[in-house]
Amino acid sequence: MSMFWFRRLWQSALTLFTMLTLMFFLFRMLPGDPTATVISPALYPKAQEILRMQFGLDKPLWEQYFVYVKNLSVFDFGLSFHTGRPVADEIGSRLLNTVLLVFPSLITAYALGSIVGAVVGWSRGSKTETILVFLSTALQSAPVFWLSMLSILYFSIQLDLFPIGHIVSPGKFPDETWRMYFSADFLHHLALPFLVNTLYQFCFPFLLMRSSILATVGEDYVELARMKGLSERSVLYRHAMRNSLLPLATTLPMTLGWAVAGSVVIETVFSWPGLGLLMVEAVGRSDYPVVQAAFLLIAVLTVLGTLIADFLYTLLDPRIVNE
Amino acid sequence: MQGTDPLVQIQNLDVSYYTKGVQAKALHNIGMEILPGERLGLVGESGCGKSTLLKTIMGVLPPNGKVNRGSIEMDGRNLIEMDEKLRRQTRWAEISMITQSALNALNPVQRIDRQIIEAIRTHQAMSKEQAAERVSELFGMVGVDPARARDYPHQFSGGMRQRAVIAMALALSPQLIIADEPTTALDVIVQDQIFSRLRQLQQDRGFAMILVTHDIALVVENCQKICVMYAGMIIEAGNTRDIIQKPRHPYTIGLINAVSVLGSVTAPIAIPGSPPNLFENLEGCRFAPRCPFASALCHQKIPEPTTLENGQKVLCHHWSKADEFSKLAKSPETWMQSTTATT
Ligand SMILES: Nc1ncnc2c1ncn2[C@@H]1O[C@H](COP(=O)(O)OP(=O)(O)OP(=O)(O)O)[C@@H](O)[C@H]1O
Ligand SMILES: [Mg+2]
Fold first, then answer.
1. pTM score, whole prediction
2. Its family (chain A) (predicted)?
3. Which class would CATH give A87-316?
């Protein structure tokens, strides 16, 4: 491994460590007693004391921090203040739900966005272009919760095409086995939030691809490709689009963390039991172990995404040499 | 060479660019012919329409450029009116191009051999291996180590990149190669090396060549024929020797004066003023506003092309007084006179 990648990995680790340290102390500086939900003030003081000891809350803050870091190093995220279950279990199933919603729609949005953006940018000045650019600019600045509620109002309530929320129909899979993800009922519930999210995520790659294609249209190598006798389509796909894909391919991994974090809104509106919804609930209950783990996960995704972006860049653009 | 059929014949060509509905007449009534195996130099100031003419020949005008009149004939076909699909087949196979800037002409994210192979396989049914072999052969011809063929453009020096572009132009053995200021970005030594290589290749393989440049000395060194362009028109054309010895158009006289080694003046004299704005409605001779010898007639009427006995063509009302002009033109005062001077 080259020096560059070694340095990048080291930087990423440092970023994550800073991040988790800040988070640990910041949350504990917030007003409110996190123990209130687990440790009922109605208990005997002696019983409260014992519970505090169990969670390690009787120790000084710095000692709690060291225990936290030590446990993290073996991937032990502690117990939820709320349920008392291990945080990893708590987050695991929720993360899967978010991933099933967010990743397919992100990939669909980027694939569609780049193709439509390229074709539209290539035939500059068409009516389709004007309309699409207007729509996606408007859509991009529209709040997601509003978009989600509108779609529920129209497609679920008015047309009765989709269920109003949740991941499966209530009572259908009481023990929530993996079987539920392979059911038509699940897909039916997934459809609307997936569509809304895809539509929303489509705007950015579409606008980016269109503008980078516009910048390529006048390039000499595009003209040369045309002079070589290539068909218009080959000129577009093999030269113009291939080169305009660079900024897009590198923003995609970087948006991974952002997209998971952004799912908070859509999950709340659609009552989608994912990580976003869990975060909202956990913050409300001052369930620090869960919140910290969720935030850490998003930070890891973001840092990892940036690393992947760096790697893709060197892979796609031979001019970049990392020494 | 007299009597041979021209390889490419351009007649009455008008090309305009339209920007927000405003027309810029970039080419006006262009007529020229290229014989097989001939080297023709096209000279003119920056912005006179050289690249526009080449793009029209290649059929790659930008979307706002339009051919309003005229024909470009090759092998009995009019390239202007040709069906796009057939036209595409002629590109590179029959006419190829060495572009103005080799750095930008090569796709930065593709290996050089792949870009040449793409040109070959677009027109010829050839396996990748055969095409790669052809690339090695071409690299040998232009003097670059074939082992470097799999490099990316940024790994090449400017001179090597230009050679790679020349190799690409030769790939399908076209009958005509157009070189648009092929060496502007290179130093003089590399420029000389490339031109001698190009000349040698041209003699060996017998393709015709149009060399576009604003450097008239390069044309004198490399081309048998010369076309002088000014503001979208060819104002003088003929054998290089004839034109250097006896230029008939005041602009050509000025151009030759501007190069000390060619003109017999001691210090080069630049032509004052700048070319007309192509967006304006141009009346009369387009050079008249800058011409020290212009008459009232010159400002009113576009001159008709005149062909002299030696085949030299000139676009000037007063071409017959050229000898006198040439003498006057040697003194810098002539060029400093107010532009309304009459003959
Ligand atoms: N796409 C375009 N739209 C509008 N005008 C254009 C366009 N391309 C060129 N022109 C104009 O047409 C004229 C001729 O340009 P052209 O590029 O053919 O000149 P040139 O002789 O090749 O110049 P140079 O020596 O600088 O390369 C110029 O006045 C230029 O401004
Ligand atoms: Mg040019």
1. 0.83
2. Belongs to the binding-protein-dependent transport system permease family.
3. mainly alpha
